[in-house]
Amino acid sequence: MIEAAVKPVVKTGGDLRGLNHSLGFLLRVSQLKVFDHFFKKLGHVGLKPGEYSVLWLIFNNPRIRQGLAAQTLSIKNAHMTKLIRSFEESGFVTRTIPDGDRRAVELDLTVSGRDFVTFHQQEFFGYIQSLNSPLNDAETKELIRLLAKFACVDQELTK
Amino acid sequence: MIEAAVKPVVKTGGDLRGLNHSLGFLLRVSQLKVFDHFFKKLGHVGLKPGEYSVLWLIFNNPRIRQGLAAQTLSIKNAHMTKLIRSFEESGFVTRTIPDGDRRAVELDLTVSGRDFVTFHQQEFFGYIQSLNSPLNDAETKELIRLLAKFACVDQELTK
DNA sequence: TCATAAATGTTTCCTTGTAAACTATCTACA
DNA sequence: TGTAGATAGTTTACAAGGAAACATTTATGA
């Protein structure tokens, strides 16, 4: 015990040498931490963060165009096609080809899709509270503000 | 045209409704931004951020164990095996099985590996300067501090 | 000391996400 | 009009990364 108290704090890993100040590296490690916690807390629900975000977006933007949804969430069109198809198969989302532009696809939630979103809303937006982060509330708020500013994401609640 | 001029300022994307305050979402979007910029600036070099970080780690920790390298960078063992093999093939890294523990693998840079790291060091650590971020210097510094604290990455230069 | 467990990487298979080519539809303008 | 180009989404082919089972070597403990 005395030894443990006396000996200097030794890192368990290798020497990062400047990588510990690299924005790209820190973003990646932070994201891994959030994802780990997400799966521990919400893995049983069966949806990943990005998937829930798609449902959430459609929930709040009925009849949104598939391409706009992809662009808003920074998901590639090719990937969005697959996500939407799987949501169709699970009965959460409907695709409608509007008469005005028959190239396009409008997305909507089914009743069970809306039920799912409302039922899990608290979990998906609140899981981060249980993360036991080293940051206090003010720091967390500031981190979110800085990230949003950096990524040019509007911080107002509604458009 | 008159219509476009008259209509209120409309966001180009859908309404994110709270997702714009989600740490997970903001981390993902921020990382995409950094990666995009990285590839624009350093795509010609042919290494991705994570790959360079592996070389950098070995450069600063000669004879590091492969598993410790993976753990330090939060890279899975299975993935690290593939990375190291490709570095072996490109002649940047050597693998040594130490006599003391014949399960283990020690990593080292070849001469050309060390040359590569030192030659590109400025680019890999400096590309972020050219990102034209909306954050000023103090904000960037604070963002890095908060991310490091959040992810529990030691901010001292050396261990 | 011999069986059992743990540690270290590797292999295999799978999921996620992307790029590029493709189909279908719409717009512009000669 | 009708044709060239733009737009919206899909398909295909692939690369990145991870989970689980595996082989090998080392540590443990009865």
Question: Could you please describe the fold and organization of this structure?
Answer:
Two copies of one chain form a homodimer. The first copy, chain A, is mostly helical. Among the domains of chain A are: about 1-35, no CATH class; about 55-120, Arc Repressor Mutant, subunit A. Helices cover about 55% and strands about 5% of the residues of chain A. Chain A contains seven helices and three strands; from the N terminus they run H-H-H-E-H-H-E-E-H-H. Chain A has helices spanning about 1-5, 25-40, 50-60, 65-75, 75-90, 110-125, 135-150, and strands spanning about 65, 95, 105-110. A three-stranded antiparallel β-sheet of chain A has the order 1-3-2. In chain A, helix 3 (about 50-60) packs across helix 6 and helix 4 packs across helix 5. Mean pLDDT of chain A is about 90; it is low at about 1-10. Chains A and B meet through helix 2, helix 3, helix 4 and helix 7 of A and helix 2, helix 3, helix 4 and helix 7 of B. The structure holds a DNA duplex (30 and 30 nucleotides). Chains A, B: InterPro entries: HTH_MarR-typ, WH-like_DNA-bd_sf, WH_DNA-bd_sf. Chains A, B: Keywords: DNA-binding, Transcription, Transcription regulation. Chains A, B: This is MarR family transcriptional regulator.
CATH superfamily of the domain at 54-122 in chain A: Winged helix-like DNA-binding domain superfamily/Winged helix DNA-binding domain
- Oligomeric state: homodimer
| Helical percentage of chain A | 55-70%
Task: Tell me the CATH architecture of the domain at 54-122 in chain A.
Answer: Orthogonal Bundle
Q: Largest sheet of chain A at a glance?
A: 3 strands, antiparallel
Beta content of chain A comes to 5-15%
Parts with pLDDT < 50 across at least 5 consecutive residues of chain A = 1-10
CATH class group of the domain at 54-122 in chain A: Mainly Alpha
Q: Considering residues with a beta carbon less than 8 A from a beta carbon on another chain, report the largest interface and each chain's count.
A: A-B, 64 and 64 residues
User: What is Rg of chain A?
Assistant: 20 Å
Order of helices and strands of chain A: HHHEHHEEHH
> Shape of chain A, please?
elongated
Count the DSSP helices of chain A: 7
Question: For the largest beta sheet of chain A, what order do the strands appear in spatially?
Answer: 1-3-2
E-strand count of chain A: 3
Distance between the termini of chain A: 57 Å
Mean pLDDT of chain A comes to 90
